[in-house]
Amino acid sequence: MPKSTLKAAVKSKSQRKDPGHRAPEVEEPTIAQPMQRVVAIVYDGMLILALLFLVGTVLTVIGTLLTMQTGTQSSEAQSLPTWYQNFIMTPSFVLTLVAFYGLFWRRGGQTLGMQTWRLKTVNNAGHLLTWPQSFKRILAACLMPLLCGIIGSIIDGSRAVLLLSAFFGLMFNYVFCLFNRRGLAVQDMLSNTITLKMPKVQYEGLWRGFRNRKQNNNKQQNK
Question: Tell me, what's the pLDDT at 205?
Fold first, then answer.
């Protein structure tokens, strides 16, 4: 028997005899704290704003070419038709938001901001979200901001009050965690999903998760 193998066998045997030797405790995932979720949203918000700006610019150019006559002076500037803004641009912004979160949640359970804080969104069974589950969670997260925005517009009607009311509605989703026994947010309860704080030993990262799942799919296809 080689010396290295013998030393390993002796070491493992001595560990079994040592009553003080204990296996390291495995850290379990916990429900994410409200502040960590909010910070992750701020991180993602910068990327989302950039995407929405890009989509809005493209749609504005297309809408201008298709629906309006362009002039050569600033006095001839026009705004896009209301029907184009309501039925083309607004749904496109919503689809961009759904595609952003849905893609990341379905592939790895994490957006870029969530990856920074080791957060992961799964369903109650612990599996990655499907497209319907992702869409349901996004709608649930928008419910309180929408209701608060409507109330704000009824009270005052100005754009500033509308945005401030919607912001308070968004924050309510996470303040609710402090009063919920399990620490769940509003969108967690309405969509039967949950956001977890993953331990370091189980954290594989977003891009590594993509790569590992791709390798696993290739192995299954080869079989």
Answer: 56
